[in-house]
Prior knowledge:
Blueprint: E1 11-16, H1 20-25, E2 33-37, H2 47-60, E3 67-71, H3 80-90, E4 94-97, H4 103-115, E5 123-128, H5 131-135, H6 137-141, E6 151-156, H7 158-165, H8 177-190, E7 193-196, H9 205-218, E8 222-225, H10 231-238, H11 242-256, E9 265-268, E10 271-274, H12 275-294
Helix pairs in contact: 2-3, 9-10, 11-12
The structure holds coenzyme A (COA) and magnesium ion.
Amino acid sequence: MTQHPLKPRRSALYMPGSNARALEKAKSLDVDCVIFDLEDAVTPDQKPAARQAIIDALTGGGYGDRELIIRSNGLDTPYIDEDLKAVVAARPHAVLLPKVNTPGDLQRLAHKLAVLNAPTDLAIWAMMETPQAILNAPAIAACGRDPEVRLSCLVLGTNDIAKETRAALNPGRAVMLPWLMTCVAAARAGGIDILDGVFNAFQDGEGFAAECAQGAEMGMDGKTLIHPKQIEACHAAFSPSEEEVAWARRINDLFDLPENADKGAIQVDGKMVERLHADMGLRVIAIADAIAARA
Length: 295
Ligand code: COA
Ligand code: MG
């Protein structure tokens, strides 16, 4: 269970900070999170204008209850200090740091933000996209329990993982599964959320739906997206279905019956159901309620 108030993070749409049309369009798109990019989607000469466009967009408002995240450049780039000044001026909910290698990187970021007097409720999100990040995943995700760092979400960077490790990023992602699942376990141990990587072929609806289903099955909280076309299928995969919610309510109601008060396990439709399943159901209900409240 995440420590922060439960927020659906089914979809997180990246957009280049330099793309004014996209920044405007995001105000009307049905996404849970918007990631305004200053890193790879913005060329070096466009970075200053992108920072200003993001500040203007965020301070101008109009994004409703979407969670707003700015992705900065990496800590060891010449852009980071100007990026963080822009973050403080724009006041997003979180800053997403790319190329994280160690928990020390997140502590360095938190320190830089403190020096800039960033608001104390500004969260940090971490890209998991280097071999070091995967090998250090438990220690990085443990920053979710460090009030000085306020790490709230891991974001998989599968394109960079493929580049840095030379492992293939193929349909089904078979060779990457151990790394992806390690990050899921690390996120849960740290009490934080985790979002799956992007699917590049945004015209391939079938392939995308399959990868969304896989991410949901893996326990991801949602998926990062690159195109508005991907939102609907993403929400279909990461929202609890009506059947799941009905089942969750039913087993909780059964455990609430006086005759089951002293039982740890009961039989429902020929299946063993334990109180842990009822607890899992409470989370499903809470997410469904939070989604309904957003709609
Ligand atoms: N966010 C918001 N709106 C987007 C968008 C995005 N990521 N991607 C496309 N759109 C909008 C376009 O502005 C266009 O809007 P309009 O028709 O109202 O003018 C509409 O969706 C259709 O766009 P389309 O023509 O299909 O795509 P494109 O060729 O303009 O752009 C990409 C394709 C891949 C360049 C673009 O989707 C993109 O920049 N994605 C994000 C890239 C990114 O941030 N990468 C970093 C992290 S991996
Ligand atoms: Mg990357």
